[in-house]
Amino acid sequence: MTTTERLAGRTALVTGGSRGIGRSISGRLARDGALVAVHYGHDHEAAQRAVKEIETAGGRAFAVHAELGVHGDAAALWQEFDARLADRGEEPGLDILVNNAGISVPGTVADVTEENFDRLVAVNARAPFFLVQHALGRLRDGGRIVNVSSAATRTAFPQITAYNMSKGALDTLTPDLAKQLGPRGITVNTVAPGFTDTGINPTLADPQVRQAYAAASVFGRVGTPDDIADAVAFLASDDARWVTGQWLNASGGVVLGP
Ligand code: NAD
User: Fold this and answer.
1) Cα torsion for 214, 217, 219, 221, to the nearest 10°?
2) Is the pTM of this model over 0.90?
3) Which residues does UniProt assign to the signal peptide (predicted)?
4) Does the CB atom of residue 150 touch ligand 1 within 6 A?
């Protein structure tokens, strides 16, 4: 377990930070010294456990609740974030925003319903857009935005085509924002995971599926949430100060082709 002080004095918010990849990102940023707002949608207990885990390891964190998606309210998320910081007597403001929350709906173009398409776009593209919009006044100069997309946007994976479209929309946000926020020293980058062992991939319980996903990586295994969290932590750090507008493939080489 890596522990550094490279994010000491920074405040971060990780959407969907209570489980899966987001939970690892929350833990990793806290171990690097950041105060972490663990955002969650529904699972209050999971968020409390994630906060507790960080605090037990000597880090600092608090939970922030907000529904994202079709009925989401980005303004409400930030109001709660502001209130929690004030409760703790912390300085207002934000240094690192990780747009990690996402959903997947399986299906080719023949299968996906309009309702599911709208849900995908609402959570995976609309929510990050408006979260950033409301974050602009809170982000301190020199800050960081990291968007968690998917390696599937740069390869053909028709089994989840609507998901890929929604993440493709998120991909296009990164360079535009990088250009807009560069004069403030804020970097904006994308991390694109490949097959990663989380609840979003229930089919990984099937050994044959797991083997096929593992074989897609040049390393012959499925990714772990920590594999992704470490890439996000790099982009959130000063070490990545000269890196912006980029799409970082964190997939174990999945998009390199056969
Ligand atoms: P996960 O299902 O474990 O976590 C998703 C997180 O998003 C959860 O914390 C969930 O509460 C939150 N979330 C989803 N819908 C929400 C809503 N409407 N309101 C508020 N929060 C909501 O899956 P994960 O694998 O940890 O996914 C994290 C990110 O990584 C997602 O954006 C996903 O698309 C991306 N990703 C995952 C993989 C993979 O193989 N696991 C591959 C590529 C990209």
Assistant:
1) -20
2) yes
3) none
4) yes
Q: By C-alpha distance, which of 39, 142, 32 is closest to 96?
A: 142
Report how far residue 182's alpha carbon sits from residue 229's, in angstroms, rounded to the nearest whole number.
24
Q: Which string of DSSP letters, residue by residue, matches 1-19?
A: -----TTTT-EEEETTTTS
pLDDT digits (tens, 9 = 90+) for 10-30: 999 999 999 999 999 999 999
Domain ranges (residues) in the chain: 11-250
- Mutate which of 39, 49, 80, 198 to test ligand 1's pocket (most atoms within 8 Å of Cβ)? 198
Q: Does domain 11-250 have CATH number 3.40.50.300?
A: no
Residue 101 one-letter amino acid: A
* Cα–Cα distance, 105 to 89 (Å, whole number): 41
Asked whether 99 lines ligand 1 (CB < 6 A), one says no
Give the number of the atom of ligand 1 that is nearest the alpha carbon of residue 196: 40
